[in-house]
Amino acid sequence: MALSILILYGSYREGRMGIRLADYLVAGFNGAGHMAELIDAKAVGLPMLDKRYSDYAAGEAPQAMAALAEKLRTADAFVFVAGEYNRGVQPGLKNLVDHYLAEFARRPAAIASYSAGRLAGTHSNAAWHVTLSGMGMAVIPNTLTVGQIGQTLDDKAQPMGEGGAALERGFPKFADELVWWAMAAKGGRG
Description:
The protein is an alpha/beta fold. Helices cover 42% and strands 18% of the residues.
């Protein structure tokens, strides 16, 4: 059964490297027969959080916010592509997520973290576990961590070198676990 999986990415920086990981994940899930879609915070362009989606009266939320709310409500699972900024979370991704709450509930979330260095976004990864759990998502135990992203994925999101080989070995288990949780959650939601 094909699942709807949203890949959420939040860097606004020039020369964004994490988009390579986001594109790799979209291709990987689509290649496994699912319907994966990239949600790029920069492209969505929500303002800094002032009013959450739920704070608007029905039909009054900005169009981009309402359209994303519908995608979130109908998704079976989420993957958060989490870069690390100053040992914390990316502000663009956090801002995107904070506009919503109920739209994420009772679905599984997976975290794929990355960094330019060898720590692979582990601080961000840990912080997202707490945030996503607090928002009502079941965060799967298996994560992907990609260090030295510029040496792991090329500009076409193709794996290269030892890091790319490690990513290729890790992705199937990561994907299988997210799919298992998504199927279980979907059955529970009815």
